[in-house]
Predict the structure.
Amino acid sequence: MDANSSHGFPFSIVGFDLDGTLLDTSGDLTAAVNHALGSIGRAPLTVEAVKPMIGGGARAMLQHGLDATGGYDAETLDRLHRLLLDYYEAHLAVHTVPFPGAIEALDELAARGVTLGIMTNKLERFARSILGELGLTDRFASIIGGDTLGVAKPSPKPIQALVKQCGGGTAAFVGDSIFDVQAARAAGLPVIACSFGFLSQPVEALGAGAIIDSYGELIPTLTRLSPSAT
């Protein structure tokens, strides 16, 4: 039995997605998409239009943006993808902030002895840079990006690696996309979906084991969630 389980808390590890889960990165990602679109004379997209495009990685986000503004060919996608990444790397944390209550929830989990990890489809170097800019890196025993293992969510392998890097034990995952839910369930972890995230469909349709509307609900929800509730 995990030490946390013996003290009434069911999880020794909690993993988090980054974009739309721990951090509101929508402003900086929208700026990067619009920089790429503007280079070929496309009209800019609003933050609200870009939010549902986030979650599958930068290339998929750009594909959605190009589709929404007139389409694309393979050469244009490749060229603008490089342009988007270069711009984003230079403007990673201009507008990005943790969601309200996220830091307090991380503090409470740490106080309970829970080991924390990040698994994002964002490139690992970008994730580490943003977490570093926000002073959050040292909170996480594992930071895995979409390129770290050569596979990204919805593959379960990155989440399985997160659990291993965090020392093993009972684990849950928190995310906001179908990629998060599919990956966590395939890895055998219960998953909590954030209704305040960058949703491309109703949060109820994601198939998560539980839903939270704010970070104030995270600890009570984890407490009620069974480790086997995948």
In short: The chain has ten helices and eight strands. Residues 74-90 form the longest helix (17 residues).
